[in-house]
């Protein structure tokens, strides 16, 4: 049978309300699509089918109340796990990173902007991205940039909170979040993706982690193409191999080079209200800042600016000069703090 024969049967059984035959022919079409390499189409059909079967199972009572009311109830339910629901106006201008990362991100954005073109040729659309690398190097920021560039609403989810609060309900809560975000074609940003690795520590039940990983694998597999998942982690080595492989794009964020630090400084000062009191000193500070994160460098610079403003205004000088000696001292302190050995985690008895 060809695809159009299946569609004719589906129309017929649908209109005749013949559920058994409809399900049968849908299964056949899913199978046919898989064999003819229309894998995405097969997955989409399958998720429609599954969703509908599940709704029928639980939907013995017909629901009362508006859709909005139901959504509010579910929002309340998910409230503790969804940290933020945001619309972002971040763009590439806000992010400093390597050409390589820019290319990967741009290509991903391009795919989503041209989603209809890809569909026309039955090409798969990448929608699962993994960001990894040290803390403070722009993973969260890049997720805002993706959402902003694509004008999509973004759910920020903290996996750590979901996993640790009610372990037994982790899978259920994740499924709820995915269902909600899928319905709204959003970006789901899952921070602390490595928390999954910690399930081993929390749970007495050794099957628990496997179950959660399997749930996530399934949720990722049945994600509608318009919906994007971004997972972020500082510890990629904690994550199950099978899970890592499920992502279409895997991007590493790194500590900034001298050139990138310079760009970060320019970005931070771009409103034009501040300049440095000593340009040579700036070059030296940039040099010694190699090895610390964008976040730490920017934080110390902003602190130096604020203190310089206080200094100038208390001594009635014109505000606008940044005291580089101050910034230099702050960078030293930051480096010292980072070098301090972190106290080892207490061993469990
Ligand atoms: N690559 C970057 N380009 C510009 N600013 C950055 C970059 N990385 C970090 N920052 C600054 O540090 C803040 C925290 O970074 P964040 O994206 O949360 O890091 P991560 O998620 O990797 O830990 C950002 O909001 C931004 O102000
Ligand atoms: Mg982050």
Kindly describe this structure.
This protein has 16 helices and eight strands. It has helices at 3-15, 19-35, 39-58, 67-78, 99-113, 115-120, 139-150, 159-165, 170-183, 195-202, 207-221, 241-245, 258-268, 279-288, 294-314, 324-339; strands at residues 82-87, 128-132, 153-158, 187-191, 228-233, 249-252, 275-276, 321-322. 58% of the residues lie in helices and 10% in strands. Helix 10 (195-202) packs antiparallel against helix 11. The strands form two sheets. A six-stranded mixed sheet has the order 1-3-4-5-2-6, sandwiched between helices. A two-stranded parallel ribbon has the order 7-8. With 349 residues, it is an alpha/beta fold. Bound molecules: adenosine-5'-diphosphate and magnesium ion (MG).
Give the count of helical stretches: 16
Bound molecule types = adenosine-5'-diphosphate, magnesium ion
What is the CA-based Rg, rounded? 25 Å
Strand order of the largest sheet: 1-3-4-5-2-6
Low-pLDDT sequence parts: 58-70
What kind of sheet is the major sheet? 6 strands, mixed
Report the mean per-residue pLDDT as an integer: 85
- Number of individual domains: 3
> CATH class of the largest domain, please?
Alpha Beta
Q: In percent terms, what proportion of residues is strand?
A: 5-15%
Q: How does CATH name the architecture of the largest domain?
A: 3-Layer(aba) Sandwich
Rounded to the nearest angstrom, the distance between the terminal CA atoms is 64 Å
The CATH fourth-level homologous superfamily of the largest domain:
P-loop containing nucleotide triphosphate hydrolases
The percentage helix is: 55-70%
Label the overall shape. elongated
